[in-house]
Amino acid sequence: MADVPEVTTSSAEELLALGRRHLAVRDYHAATESLAKACEMLAKTHGDIADECAEAYLWYGKALLGLSREESGVLGGGIPGDNEDDDNDDENNENGDEESKEQGEVANDDNAVESKEQAEIANEEVKKNEAESTTKEEEPTSSTAKESNEKPGSSNDDQNDDSVVNLENEDDVDNLQLAWEMLELSRSILEKRVADSGNAGRALLADAHLALGEVALESETYDKAVLDMVSCLEIQKELYGSDDRRIAETHYQIGLANSLASNFEDAITHFKNAANILESRIKTLENPSAAAEDATVKKFTNADPFYSVEGELKELKELLPEIQEKIQDMMDYKAEVIKRVRETLCPTNGNGQSSSAGVNKLEPKSAPSDISHLIKRKRKSSESEETSAPKRINT
Question: Please, are residues 75 and 218 in contact by the beta-carbon 8 Å criterion?
Answer without folding.
Answer: no
